[in-house]
Write a sequence for this structure.
């Protein structure tokens, strides 16, 4: 009903949107040391203050929750919808080429800068969606609240603080992901596991192994040191393993030992099939060597049995499962350290809705225990699911389809978004899944037309969900 007015408003406020976005982008809002009244450091607090100033000037009623989040209410009516975005950003490097991370620059149809796509650009789109409705006098029967947080990138403690005070709205969406709608986020089980054993002097032997440094990343590199093996034999085993794994090995002799380097390719742990796991490839090669009998080598063979190369669904662990709406489980062996008296590893599993602690956590724990390996205590993070046939999800999809002309359907992902711990939250925009915005990387950008269209889509959805009947 109000499409022409909304479209005209956003089209005539494009420059204002860009300038407000630049104001936020100029603030280095990486988390830093906490100070009094600044739980996440000076940068995030400055971003909260700048956003609050914009919201107040637009005529919204705001509240700053001790610099954890700032909120803007459309009215004092009963709350129907929360829109949740964040103003903190991930760290930067010196490798940006288009502009510096906190010096926003428009080049062609893009705006560059840290936070353009994650999540300051989407926050501005949501703000202008609400501002358009307010300035045009479009009546809403229920309230909409914009919540801008400051700690999404480092654990979302901002939301824990906020929801310790306020109740969750009947509906929440976050523009901190991609279109059309993400209504399912898989559960996560990420655990460390360890074993200790007697040192063996028997040769030949594996002296050390190291690979991976983050649980949620497929390790792209790994290395090992072995002693007492014939160099040509190790070289031959490496060549054989290259053919079966796709990893690349290089060898060098040093101090009578052989150092083995393995190069795979990194990927996100939620999609391990997209990478080549250097840790599993290296272990595959090492257990093929004729090492002397030892407790340590037996443990390494057990690890190889539990995590075969390219076993992305946990078949060897006995947890391969899937369901119709959220898909298959994924398992990534992501971190491993081994020396002559101990080993330590980490895995990261993204689990479908059918998963629980009984059929996942305890099954893996028992598998480790059978091999004399101990997994740390704790439960899995449960999956998140808002029914795809709910009126909320269907309404968001209608707004998306109205502006894009593309038939949308709710999606399941392995990663987690800002609404993972909310009962009634989904991710809605702002990214075009076909475009690599370099999110979390160098030269991050947002396509301006996507920014403007997102504001229109959000306004359309707000009116449908909260407008007068």
């Amino acid at each position: 009903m109000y499409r022409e007015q909304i479209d005209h408003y956003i089209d005539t406020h494009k420059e204002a949107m860009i300038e407000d976005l630049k104001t936020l982008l100029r603030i280095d809002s990486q988390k830093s040391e906490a100070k009094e009244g600044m739980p996440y450091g000076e940068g995030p607090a400055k971003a909260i203050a700048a956003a609050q100033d914009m919201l107040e000037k637009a005529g919204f009623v705001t509240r700053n929750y001790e610099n954890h989040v700032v909120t803007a209410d459309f009215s004092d009516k009963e709350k129907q919808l929360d829109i949740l975005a964040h103003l903190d950003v991930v760290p930067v490097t010196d490798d940006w080429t288009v502009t510096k991370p906190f010096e926003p620059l428009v080049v062609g149809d893009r705006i560059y800068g840290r936070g353009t796509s994650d999540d300051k650009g989407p926050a501005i789109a949501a703000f202008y969606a609400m501002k358009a409705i307010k300035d045009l006098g479009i009546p809403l029967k229920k309230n909409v609240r914009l919540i801008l947080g400051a700690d999404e990138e480092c654990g979302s403690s901002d939301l824990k603080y906020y929801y310790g005070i306020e109740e969750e709205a009947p509906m929440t969406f976050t523009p901190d992901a991609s279109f059309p709608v993400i209504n399912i986020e898989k559960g996560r089980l990420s655990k460390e596991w360890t074993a200790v054993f007697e040192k063996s002097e028997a040769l030949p032997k594996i002296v050390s192994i190291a690979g991976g440094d983050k649980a949620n990343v497929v390790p792209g590199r790994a290395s090992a040191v072995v002693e007492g093996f014939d160099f040509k034999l190790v070289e031959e085993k490496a060549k054989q393993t290259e053919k079966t794994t796709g990893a690349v090995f290089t060898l060098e002799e040093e101090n009578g030992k052989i150092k083995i380097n393995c190069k795979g390719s990194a990927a996100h742990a939620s999609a391990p099939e997209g990478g080549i796991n250097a840790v599993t490839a290296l272990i595959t090669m090492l257990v093929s060597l004729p090492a002397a009998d030892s407790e340590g080598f037996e443990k390494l063979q057990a690890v190889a049995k539990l995590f075969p190369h390219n076993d992305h669904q946990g078949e060897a662990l006995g947890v391969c499962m899937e369901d119709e709406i959220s898909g298959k489980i994924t398992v990534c062996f992501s971190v491993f350290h081994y020396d002559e008296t101990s080993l330590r590893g980490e895995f990261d599993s993204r689990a479908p809705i059918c998963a629980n602690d009984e059929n996942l956590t305890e099954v893996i724990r028992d598998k480790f225990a059978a091999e004399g390996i101990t997994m740390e205590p704790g439960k899995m993070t449960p999956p998140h699911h808002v029914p795809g046939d709910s009126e909320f999800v269907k309404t968001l999809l209608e707004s998306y389809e109205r502006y894009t002309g593309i038939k949308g359907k709710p999606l399941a992902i392995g990663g987690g978004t800002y609404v993972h711990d909310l009962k009634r939250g989904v991710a809605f925009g702002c990214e075009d899944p076909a475009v690599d915005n370099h999110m979390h990387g160098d030269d991050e950008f947002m396509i301006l037309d996507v920014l403007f269209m997102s504001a229109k889509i959000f306004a359309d959805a707000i009116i449908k969900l909260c407008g007068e009947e």
